[in-house]
Amino acid sequence: MTDDTVLQVRGLSVAFPGRRGDTTAISDVDFDLRLGQTTCFVGESGSGKSVTARAVLNIVEPAVIKSGAIHLVDVKAGQRVELSGLDPDGAEIRAVRGARIAMIFQEPMSSLSPVHTIGQQITEAILLHQNVDATEARARAIEALRAVQIADPEQAIDKYPFEYSGGMRQRAMIAMALGCEPDILIADEPTTALDVTTQAEILRLIRDLQASRNMAVMFITHDMGVVAEIADQVVVMLHGRVVETGPVDQIFHAPTHHYTQKLLKAALGLDAAPARQRDTTDDTVLLETRNLSLRFPSKGRIFRKGTGVQALDGVSIDLRRGEILGIVGESGSGKTTLARVLMGRFQPQSGEAAYHTRDGGTRDMTKKASFRDGLVYREMRMIFQDPYGSLNPRMTVEQIVGEPLLVNGLLKGGALRTRVGALLERVGLPASAMERYPHAFSGGQRQRIGIARAIALDPRIIIADEATSALDGSIRAQILDLLLDLRAELDLSILFIAHDIGVVRYFCDRVAVMHRGQVVETGTALQICDHPRQAYTQALIAAVPIPNPRKRHLTLT
After folding, report:
1. Burial, 16: exposed, middle or buried (Cβ in 10 Å; 0-12, 13-18, 19+)?
2. pTM higher than the cut 0.85
3. Can you tell me whether residue 95 is helix, strand or coil?
4. Which of 60, 165, 403, 505 has the most CB atoms lying inside 10 A of its own CB?
């Protein structure tokens, strides 16, 4: 243990008890955290990264810590506290959580109370761990918001989480975590749901705060580009074990374990692959919009003309037969709103949107009536971002995948079951999986189930809304390759909404860049990703982390 070691973990094992015996989550895990350094934990879903982080704070229930030692070191006093043996609900460990070790989570909306202001939640943590009154706690909360670069913190402190953007909510979580000036910050996938520019801002913020406060950071991620940007040390986990650890440069340029090499190959594969060029001469337009505009009214000002949020502002796009069109942009740029208009969820105030059906007809996508006969829903299907939230946990896989066929009166009984089995096998799952429920599958497998459901009705168009952003690098590549195979086999056109430029470069034929409700640039994937013309697109591309620690973008401000 070095003089700056603030946390030492040795032989840590955690298991989930069950009726048929314990299920091991992590086994014999060793690592150190040092002041002023960032240690990144990488690995696919289920590798044990998050369980390891929660074990440090002794919040693994219903699992239990079976063995090992977790020593929290007071560097100044030279004292050590053993955390794994403390009562998970006791006063000693509660004094550590938030005060000495703080944690920020992947999805701030589920981590922040929706019925309390941001200020109330930050001051609560300060009052719990610091010997100050309410006035001083509020002052410290305002300073914490200022430290994370939230504008006008004196007013922002009294707002609720829903009034913050995604990036602001994550900043508020960081402010809450840092309110008591902890020695260790644990960040569990804090940038996964953010666009590349917001992600870069959050990563830079964490690095700046770490440097100014000399914190140790335990950063959990599956994005090797993020690891390359911020890591000092890297811990690679597989099936609950640490398979490789070392300095970031060594891990990227001289990895010794085959699994580390696999992770790097998956990350480099998307970014190093040549940009796709459309290999068809069919310019038949299936879906088109012209000057599409949609404004959401402001709260309490529904009847005041000209107020509200301009979600779409004159959007014009074309999706051709057999084409993959990428829609990219920051959060709030209008990408998902556009998809919801095309699927009948929202009706725009002006502009045109038309879908040219398989039988030669045309549907006006701005009118609810176009969706009532079910034809549009049969020929245009959607794949969602969250493979966990988009599947009904009370339905079997057979019911989930077969539902569109049953509802449309196409198949039932044995014929339906046979079709579901064939669809599952087409997306790389065994037909026997139809008897199980969604909770029995990994994230990548659940997304395959979602794809099987989407192609059940032999659609012409798939709208994929951030369909791979929640997946690990190697799983993401598998899903993209599956969609490419299905595109060729089923003659699909795909509208692919994403914020990952590497994915768009690898997967799409053309790309439309959106900013503040407008399409600011359209071109081939090669032109947009390698030779962008607009300043906004250039900034978007420049913010993409490169999976090479020798080419870091971020610098301390």
Report:
1. middle
2. no
3. helix
4. 505
Is the pLDDT at 275 greater than 60? The verdict is: no
Q: Which residues of 164-199 are buried (b: 16+ CB within 10 A; e: fewer)?
A: bebbbbbbbbbbbbbbbebbbbbbbbbbbbbbbbbb
**Neighbouring C-alpha atoms within 13 Å toward the C-beta of 72:** 23
The angle subtended at Cα 473 by Cα 467 and Cα 474, nearest 5°, is 105
Residue 393's contacts (CB-CB under 8 Å, 6 or more residues apart) are 437, 438, 439
What is the dihedral angle through the alpha carbons of 456, 461, 463, 469, rounded to the nearest 10 degrees?
Answer: 70
Q: How far apart are the first and last CA of the chain?
A: 31
Amino acid 308 reads G
Going by C-alpha positions, the residue among 447, 446, 489, 481 that lies closest to residue 467 is 447
Q: What does the alpha-carbon distance between residue 202 and residue 220 come to, in Å, rounded to a whole number?
A: 14
Q: What is the mean pLDDT of the chain?
A: 87
Strands of the sheet with 461-465, listed across from one edge: 380-383, 461-465, 493-498, 324-328, 510-515, 518-524
Total count of residues recorded for the chain: 557
Which residues make beta-bridge pairs with 101?
97, 184
Name the helix (H) or strand (E) containing 477.
helix 473-490
Q: Which residues have CB under 8 Å from 353's CB, separation 6+?
A: 287, 288, 289, 290, 292, 341, 342, 364, 365, 366
Distance CA 83, CA 395 (A): 41
**Residue 513 near residue 519 (C-beta atoms within 8 A):** yes
The two three-digit tokens of residue 131, written as one number: 């010997």
CA R_g for the chain: 25
Cβ neighbours of residue 444 under 8 Å, at least 6 residues apart? 45, 387, 471, 472, 475, 478, 479
DSSP secondary structure letter of residue 214: T
Distance of alpha carbon 74 from alpha carbon 7, whole angstroms: 9
Q: What residues have CB less than 8 Å from 135, skipping those under 6 apart?
A: none
Which residues are within 8 A (CB) of 258 and not within 5 positions of it... i.e. 6 or more apart?
Answer: none
CA distance 52 to 122: 26
Which of 149, 122, 141, 134 lies closest to 212, judged by CA? Answer: 149
Residue 314 CA: distances (Å) to CA of 59, 324, 346, 411: 49, 22, 15, 42
Residue indicated by tokens 């914020």: 499
Complete edge-to-edge strand list for the sheet that includes strand 362-364 = 309-320, 285-296, 350-356, 362-364
Structure tokens, 322 = 């057999």
Please, which pLDDT band fits residue 81 given cuts at 50, 70 and 90? confident
The Cα-based distances of 29 to 41, 81, 221, 242, 336 in angstroms read 12, 18, 18, 6, 41
Q: Which residues pair with 328 in a beta bridge?
A: 498, 513
Q: Where in the chain is the domain with CATH 3.40.50.300?
A: 1-87+220-272, 323-545
CATH superfamily of the domain spanning 1-87+220-272: P-loop containing nucleotide triphosphate hydrolases (3.40.50.300)
| The domain made up of 323-545 is a member of CATH 3.40.630.10 | no
Would you place residue 301 in the very low, low, confident or very high pLDDT band (cuts 50, 70, 90)? very low
